[in-house]
Amino acid sequence: MPPQPSTAPEPESPVPSAIAEIENCLTRVSYLAGRARQHEYRMAMAGLPLDRAAVAVLRRLAEAEPMRPGVLAGLLAVEASHVTRQVQQLERAGYVLRAADPHDRRARRIGLTDAGRAAVDRFREAGRVGMGMALADWSDDDLRRLAELFHRLVDDFVTHAEVTADLGPTA
Fold this sequence. Notes:
This protein is mainly alpha-helical. The chain has helices at 17-34, 36-46, 52-62, 69-76, 80-92, 114-134, 140-167; strands at 96-101, 104-112. The chain has a single domain, classed as Winged helix-like DNA-binding domain superfamily/Winged helix DNA-binding domain (Arc Repressor Mutant, subunit A), CATH 1.10.10. The longest helix has 28 residues, at 140-167.
C-alpha cells in the first residue's frame, strides 16, 4: 500500500515567510555570483588571468592596510597554507608585495602593488558593468532604495555576527 499523505498540520516555522524569501533570494544571488562561469566572464571582461581564490585575496587586501598572512587567512576563513600559496602566485605575478612588519621585523606583511590595485579596480568595474546590465530596467529610485536596504542588511548582519561571536558557540 503506498504511503498516505499526512493529515497532521505542518509545524509552523518560527521564521516569518518574508525572512525565508529573503534567505532564498540571497542564496540564489550568492550562487549566481559565485559560479565559475560568471567568474571567468568577469575575468575576461577585466582582462585578468586570476582564479576566484586570488580575487578573494586581492579584494581583502584592497580593503585594509598591509597585513600578516595569518590575519589574512583568518579574515578569509581559510588555512594559512592556502594564503601562502596564493600570495606566492600573486607576488610572482606582481600583484602583491611582502615587506617587513614595522612592529616585528621577523614577521612579514602583505600589501597590494600598484598592479594589484589596478587589478582590483578592473574586476570591480567588470562586476559593476555586469550588475548594471542586469539592473538596466530598474529606476534610479529603485536602485537607490535597494542600495540603502543592502547597506542596512549588511550592517545588521555584521552587528549580529559580532554579537554571536561574543556569545560563543550556542548549545
